[in-house]
Sequence to fold (214 residues):
Amino acid sequence: MGYFPFFMELKGKNGIVVGGGKVAARKVEKLLLFDPSLKVIAPVIEECMRVLGGLPQKDVAASLQFEEREVQMEDLNGADFVVAATDDEALNGRIAAHCSAGRIPVNVVDDRDKCTFFFPALIKEGPLTIGISTDGKSPLAAAWVRQEISGKLTDGIGNIIDLLGQVRPAVMQMEMEESDRKKLFERLFCYCMEKGKGVSVEELMGLLQTDFEK
Fold:
């Protein structure tokens, strides 16, 4: 039946990542884009995890903790989600079983049958997030689709979406009918797409004071 692509708020959520190598580091790097509170537990935490692809440690210190030790199943209790990214298949299995029993969402690297959620191939530009999943069957195919989509996106689309979000409250006040609001949002969106990066929120607010909406 496939997996439904929920988009969830991760800001401040408590996540546990078990594993300190390159695979775990890639998972952490993706998660940090959404500002959860992460704890990494592993007997050895490699440099690739500590630097996170070149990010200064001060930029992530507030939301990322390292505990260089063996994980205990009790560590997972109360977590909002868990990632098992060790090279020990048996340990990953125990983590998955513990999380399933406790109804904790868990991702187990390279073992789709033990996962209750997958990491999508991500496209992230400002408020725009596109997640591509193959139900864990072919990460390579998901990465290919991501590349294809990324190459077709309008340059600066994230900024355009952010601008439209800033003027949204004004539009909601101006137009009481949903159909009228939709038409005005469509005009604003088309205007932004035509103008490109040069458009500003002040310009859009000015348009709303004219007969632009008509």
Q: What stands out?
A: The CA atoms of residues 29 and 52 lie 6 Å apart. The chain has a mean pLDDT of 90.
